[in-house]
Amino acid sequence: MRPSTMSAYNRLPHVPDCTCSVCWSRREMAKPVRSRSTPCALCRPAYARPTRTLQMGRVAGIWKPLLSEWKVEPAFICEKHTPPARPPKYWSVIYDSGKPTPFVPIYEPFELVG
Q1: Cα–Cα nearest to 65, from 56, 74, 73
Q2: Whole-angstrom Cα distance, residue 46 to residue 16?
């Protein structure tokens, strides 16, 4: 094919139900994906808020709380969004024969006594 014919071929529109890799990738990228970091309705961040003011004072001519009691609400992360306790296991031990025995090369021949 000549270059002009090839570029004209590449610009042809695809049919609506095309199954080529370009159209498939375009459809997959258009799908909304919820990432693991997106919080769900069960997850909530930690927050702290003052519940009672114990002492007030004037700071630069404005009354402000100097000492307060605070209520701290810990964060909650659902099981789906909780990170694993350890990294994933990529390999496993098939047979554990105990402590490894170091290899010591013998340079001199010997005879068994006994």
Answers
A1: 56
A2: 48
